[in-house]
Amino acid sequence: MVQTDPEFFPKSAKGQSPKILWIGCADSRIPESTILGLKPGEVFVHRNIANIITPTDINSLSVIEFAVAHLKVEHILVCGHTSCGGVNAALGNTRLGLLDIWLQPMRQLRMEHTDELEKMDTQGDKTLRLSQYNILRSLEVLRMNPTVIDAMKERNLELHGVIYHVENGKLEVVESSEDEHKLKKRLAAFTTQQAA
């Protein structure tokens, strides 16, 4: 690195100003900076098993708060992937200890979409579809976060969902738009104000 970019380390030592918060899976095959073609320091990262976001996980909430309120990221990117062990575990019924608790949100999605998932022919198709539903749920959770709501309103923070295909390295966008009616209901229910 010193040979190809002599200023990299001195610049890094001065601080960080990433534009992207990446929320992804802990899977070792999903290196966010490499996937995005960026250098260390350009992406703030939170990773966990199956990239699950819940409204009560203090770990992810702390990362989101720091990235959005203090680093002022411009984009939050939630990334799932094909061949995800966590998603496959949620699709199965093997007891996994502590992971059973962690995967409850994913199992709930499985339960909600059982009819659709059972009609699919391959495990890969089921994994992909449940990964997409997980991303959509994660984006819903983010849209209910007061810090995220404020940043979307005040400085146009953008939320994105993608699936990384480990078999070919492609990123697929997961569409997650809100219609005006749903947006108004969400903002009415989750926008908070400082107490006087």
UniProtKB/TrEMBL annotation:
Catalytic activity annotated for this protein?
A: hydrogencarbonate + H(+) = CO2 + H2O
What EC number(s) are associated with this protein in UniProt?
A: 4.2.1.1
Going by the record, the broad EC class of this enzyme is lyase
For this chain, one GO molecular function annotation is: zinc ion binding
State any GO CC term: cytoplasm
Q: Give the record's cofactor note, including how many are bound.
A: Binds 1 zinc ion per subunit.
- InterPro entries in the record: Carbonic_anhydrase, Carbonic_anhydrase_CS, Carbonic_anhydrase_sf
- The UniProt annotation places Zn(2+) binding at C25, D27, H81, C84
Asked whether the UniProt record includes rRNA processing among its keywords, one would answer: no
Question: Per the entry, which co-factors are needed?
Answer: Zn(2+)
Any single Pfam family the record assigns to this protein = Pro_CA
- Keyword tags: Lyase, Metal-binding, Zinc
| GO-annotated biological processes | carbon utilization; cellular response to carbon dioxide; cellular response to oxidative stress
Q: Which PANTHER family match?
A: CARBONIC ANHYDRASE
The similarity comment for this entry is:
Belongs to the beta-class carbonic anhydrase family.
Main function: Reversible hydration of carbon dioxide.
| Name of the protein in its database record | Carbonic anhydrase
Lineage start: Eukaryota, Fungi, Dikarya, Ascomycota, Pezizomycotina
